[in-house]
Amino acid sequence: MKKLIALILAVAFVLASVPAFAGNENDVDVANDIVFARPLGFVSIVAGAGLFIVSLPLAIISGSVNKTGQTLVGNPVKYTLVRPIGDFEYSVDADREDTER
Fold first, then answer.
1. What is the per-residue pLDDT across 6-41, written as a single tens digit (0 to 9) for each?
2. How far is residue 95's CA from residue 73's CA, in Å, rounded to a whole number?
3. Is 59 exposed, middle or buried (0-12, 13-18, 19+ CB in 10 A)?
């Protein structure tokens, strides 16, 4: 129990100190990205992979395996691992258009 309280306090102190270290708006975006968006991105990758496995039989029947995989797994991977840190304006579709040219 003491370890849990210590962990909660440590996280609270770190989160409370992030704005103190932020020099401008971009620094806050970077901090928010690292603390919140990237971990949620990893969760969405795992959830998307699970949903993809569940939906795979229907995707095979309908012939939409590539689209389903791209939507449920590919886009979260790009948003989490390819997107520049702190860039919340990043569009997965814009990246796809650049690679198609």
1. 777 776 666 665 555 545 667 888 888 999 999 999
2. 15
3. middle
